[in-house]
Structures are given as structure tokens and as C-alpha cells.
Amino acid sequence: ATKCGVTSITFSRAHPNLLAAGLYDGTVCIYDVRKTDQTKPMLASGHTSGKHSDPVWGLKWVDQGAERGEVLVSISTDGRITQWNMKKGLEHTVLMVLKRVTATAKHGAADGKDVAAAAGSEGIISRRASGLCFDFCPKDSNLYVAGTEDGHLHKCSCSYNEQHLDNYFGHAGPVYQLRWSPFCANTFISCSADWTIKLWDQEHSSPIFSFQSTTDYVSDICWSPTNSTIFAAVTGDGRVDVWDISANTLDPVQSVQTDRRLTTVKFAPDCAVLVTGNDAGAVEVYQLSGSLAESTGRTQMQQVAALDKVTSTVHDGA
After folding, report:
1. Buried b vs exposed e over 130-165: b needs ≥16 C-beta within 10 Å?
2. pLDDT digit string (tens) for 243-271?
3. Is-contact 197 210, C-beta < 8 A?
């Protein structure tokens, strides 16, 4: 049991018995699910200086190699992205304090200039941005992208906390979720309160594609673990959409309309199943069919090529 609402959870990959939870009051806690007594977490940020002052909207376990092992990273609307280490209790390191930037900073980043200086003309660089979501690059555990209430995305490094490495502009509302492609190290998608899903290349500050199927917020997105051009999304007006951008970039290839506000979506890793969660606290399971359920049989290189084939049409025309 927790003392307040749970805003994020995630299981450790290295130690599957460890469940991390982020709470509405800013606490980060870790439970050992093997224990029968779960009245208190095994570890908690409590009232330490590392405790977030706002809800913890995202948590990720990150494998940082043989020497450093697995660490837990959290993001909060207090603007901080914090790393947690369990070697001696629950120690914390602030990886980044997100800063508000404007589109004027875009050109500074592209030209290799100081992004902070580019945004300084707006007089708001000292103000924090409210973090809502983040994801780590699958090919480089040092790099991650964070989404904010401002609608901007920021690429950051775990080894450099002075400023963002890059900024991405395109959303007109809070970014609720972003996911890096499991196949392509340069590609990620994001979804927003502005009704859209956007696909990005980390080398470009503007989105490659923008997808829309509804006039309500998109609360969650996830990539297919078996097909590099397929992702799923769920919306505030109850839509479950599956997109295959190699077949259609204008409309989802499959849609289901429900009567609940949907909050989360996830592909099963080993079977043709999609799982969603809703505002009633219910979990629903969908069986995928047709081409969505078939194995592509592609190699890693073929998966990358399939996605590149779609995105290169935009790059070539740019």
C-alpha cells in the first residue's frame, strides 16, 4: 500500500523482483515483490533532499554497463530528472534540471551554438520546464529525450547536466509520452494533448511526420516489438489505434472505439496481443489479427531499412 496515488511504475530488468513506483507526492520507492509484507517499501526517497516536490510522472530502469550496473531514473513536473542508486540506501544524482526554451533556440542548436544563449533573448531561460515523460536511446544509455508540459522535447546526456544537447519543436500542448524506436537509434515518437502523434529523427529539430485520428488528447503510445513501422496509441475519447506507417501515414490500419478514457497501451513482447488501461482502473486485452499478427521474419538491418524507407521520403523532399 502507498500513502498516496501511484503515478508511475516499472519493473527492474536485472532484478525482476524489484518494482519501482513514483508517487503523486514526489516520492520514489522500491518494493521487493518476493516479500509477503508490503506495508512499507524496501527503499524510499522519503524526505531526503532528492525527493521530488511534484508528482513523479515517469520512471525507467537503465542499464549503464557492467561497471555501473542498473540505475533508476525519474522525471517530475518539478523540472528535475534524477538518477537513483541502491548501493547505499537510495542515493540520488540530479541528471538535469529542465529549462524552458523557445523556438528561437532551435537555430542555435542546429548551428552548434550555445542553446541557452539563443533562448536568453526571451528572458526566461532561468525558468524550469515541467517534465512529463522521457525515454533512453536503445543504442546509447547515456542519451535520453524528455517531453514537457510546454510541448517541447529536449535531448539530454547523463554525463552533461549543464544544458540540453538539442531541442525539438512541433507539439502545441503537453507531451504525455515518448518512445524511442527499439530498432532505429535515431527515431522516436511522441504523443500530446494537441491531439497528435509525431515521429522524429534526433538529427532534426522538427518532426518528420504528424499523425492524427481524433480530436482529443493522445495519452500513450508504444512501438511494436516485432515490426519497426508499427505503433499503437490510445486517446482520451476511447480510441485504440494501430498504425503501420509503411502502409498508411494518414489513418490507422486498425481502430477500436471504447466508451472509456484510455490511459496506457502496450504490445505483449512474445505474442500478437495489445493491452490497454483505462480511467476505470480496468485492463483490456486485444488479439491482433491479419498482418498485425504475422511475424515479419526481418533481421535487425531489415527492420531499420523498412523504417528508413518511410522516413527517407520526407528527408529526400526536404
Report:
1. bbbbbbbbeeebebbbbbbbbbbbbbbbbeeeebbe
2. 999 999 999 999 999 999 999 999 999 89
3. yes
